[in-house]
């Protein structure tokens, strides 16, 4: 039996990408940070589910252009992820907003990280039992969950 070697990596949430691009670390100011991020993408160590791309696409701006240039980072679902998403949606009924036009990426992010044994990067803060957020789901599913700053520290990035 062949043993699979796991490559360490990260699944990034839409909120973290938006915070990076628009709120805190715009690429015109933090060029070296964005080179490092794109380096991780190129190495296959920073991914997001296709649903994150779909959320970004609803904004149609410079961030969408960047996402299209890095389209290879957005993964389609496989069977193990579909199974995990189904479990997450059953366990956390209030995680997704049923009125949202684009599918909510949250369960897909956690499912991708869980099936790859990777960490999640998100800007979300924990929610309540009635309105859970990604950190709540990660905690219950034994998935490491990092803020952007925690991710930078883990990567030993200093700017």
Number of domains: 1
The coarse silhouette is globular
Strand order in the sheet with the most strands: 3-2-1-4-5
Largest sheet report? 5 strands, parallel
What is the CATH topology? Rossmann fold
- The average pLDDT value, as a whole number, equals 90
How many individual helices? 8
Tell me what portion of residues adopts beta-strand conformation: 5-15%
Rg from Cα: 15 Å
User: Low-confidence segments, ≥5 residues, pLDDT <50?
Assistant: 1-5
Instruction: Provide the helix percentage.
Output: 40-55%
Question: What is the CATH superfamily label?
Answer: 5'-nuclease
Topology as H/E string? EHHEHHEHHEHEH
Secondary structure: number of strands: 5
CATH class: Alpha Beta
CATH architecture: 3-Layer(aba) Sandwich
How does this model look, in words?
This protein has eight helices and five strands. With 159 residues, the protein is α/β, with parallel strands linked by helices. The protein has a single domain (12-155), classed as Rossmann fold. It has a five-stranded parallel β-sheet with strand order 3-2-1-4-5. Helix 7 links the parallel strand 4 and strand 5 (145-146). The longest helix has 13 residues, at 79-91. The chain is globular.
């Amino acid at each position: 039996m062949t043993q699979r070697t796991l490559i360490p990596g990260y699944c990034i949430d839409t909120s973290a990408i938006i915070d990076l691009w628009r709120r805190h670390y715009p690429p015109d100011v933090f060029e070296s940070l964005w080179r490092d991020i794109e380096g991780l993408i190129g190495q296959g160590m920073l991914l997001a589910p296709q649903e994150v791309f779909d959320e970004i696409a609803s904004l149609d701006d410079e961030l969408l252009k960047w996402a299209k240039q890095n389209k290879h980072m957005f993964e389609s679902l496989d069977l193990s992820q579909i199974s995990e998403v189904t479990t997450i949606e059953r366990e956390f009924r209030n995680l997704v907003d049923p009125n949202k036009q684009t599918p909510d990426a949250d369960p897909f992010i956690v499912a991708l990280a869980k099936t790859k044994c990777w960490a999640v990067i998100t800007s979300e803060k924990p929610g309540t039992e009635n309105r859970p957020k990604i950190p709540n789901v990660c905690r219950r599913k034994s998935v490491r969950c990092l803020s952007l700053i925690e991710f930078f520290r883990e990567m030993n990035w200093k700017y």
